[in-house]
Design a protein that fits this description.
By secondary structure, the chain is mainly alpha-helical. The chain has 12 helices and 5 strands. The longest helix is centred in the C-terminal third of the chain and has 54 residues, at about 270-325.
């Protein structure tokens, strides 16, 4: 935003900012290659800022209410079933990226949240941990592997406390023990720069976000599993929780989304859910169908009885007539 609005032709006072100005800004972002989903995040942040300004009576209206609709492209991200996730965990048992993958699969943590996990955030007595620090990779052309750290998560909702599952607790304690053993093995060549962090190589080097993704992809391909990315695991757990009936608001808190709209993009449905919905539809109409069938059966019985009575009456009449003769 600073890059765009500090240009002389784009300078505006906040109270002078219009919907047209924002539309021009969003077009600028599109020219830079940003997707509408990313632009929608910009719009959410700007909208939130203007809501605060409105409450303080520093502006007269919120220009985001008048912008052209941002149509977010729905990108189908491959997801894993419960069976596929368990198979993945089995394959990665003992691998250097086992722990990052467990955090991605069980909690749907972002890559930056996983690599940013520090030892101090784990409470082994109360079995929980905090997401309050991230490791972000510089994706610029220069020095691609450079990572910088921040105590600011992607959003306010991103800072959250999560339960420490027994299987994850065991894996974390195992990793901490391995780190201490590696310090003795590597001696002076051990890298203590990232000693606060838990996602490190045996020599103490940080597991770079890019390395995690590349190694993950190689292991997936080598073991002939369906192609997926670490971020796809985030979508996977979101979908599985959604299918299990977890409320969308609770899912929003679990994933650390600022806006529930983002959570909706992460959820998927499947044919089993469609069958369940179809079963509910059938239940709605089942009662009516049964009544109709019962009515049919009752009417048929009445018809047969009536027919029998007529037949019996005719026979008796014939007998009486014969006796008279």
């Amino acid at each position: 935003m600073k890059e765009y609005f500090t240009k002389k032709e784009n300078r505006r006072k906040v109270k002078e900012l219009t919907a047209d100005d924002l539309d021009d800004f969003y077009d600028y972002l599109r020219e830079k290659g940003l997707s509408n989903a990313s632009i929608d995040h910009y719009n959410d942040n700007i909208s939130g800022a203007f809501k605060v300004l409105l409450r303080k009576k520093l502006v007269r209206y919120n220009p985001t209410d008048l912008i052209n609709p941002i149509v977010v492209e729905v990108t189908e991200v491959p997801t894993y079933t419960e069976k596929e996730l368990n198979k993945l965990f089995e394959i990665l048992d003992g691998d250097i990226i086992e722990l990052p993958t467990l955090f991605a699969g069980y909690y749907g943590l972002r890559r930056s949240e996983i690599i940013g996990l520090r030892k101090e955030v784990f409470d082994f007595e109360n079995d929980n941990f905090i997401i309050n620090h991230v490791a972000i990779q510089n994706d610029g052309k220069e020095n691609k592997e450079k990572v910088y750290f921040s105590d600011r998560t992607k959003s306010k909702k991103g800072c959250r406390v999560l339960p420490l599952f027994p299987i994850i607790k065991k894996a974390v304690l195992k990793k901490l023990k391995r780190i201490e053993e590696n310090k003795k093995i590597f001696g002076d060549s051990y890298n203590y720069e990232y000693d606060k962090y838990i996602c490190v190589h045996d020599n103490g080097n940080l597991i770079q976000p890019g390395y995690f993704t590349k190694r993950f992809s190689k292991l997936i391909e080598r073991n002939e599993l369906r192609k997926i990315t670490p971020h796809g695991l985030r979508h996977s757990i979101a979908t599985l929780l959604h299918l299990k009936g977890v409320d969308i608001r609770d899912l929003q808190d679990w994933l650390g989304h600022e806006n529930v709209t983002s959570t909706n993009r992460y959820t998927r449905t499947d044919y089993k859910k469609q069958v369940e919905t179809g079963g509910t539809v059938l239940q709605i109409f089942e009662k009516t169908d049964n009544i109709t069938e019962n009515e049919k059966n009752t009417n048929e019985k009445r018809y047969l009885v009536k027919k029998k009575n007529i037949y019996t009456g005719n026979i008796n009449a014939l007998k009486t007539k014969s006796n008279i003769s």
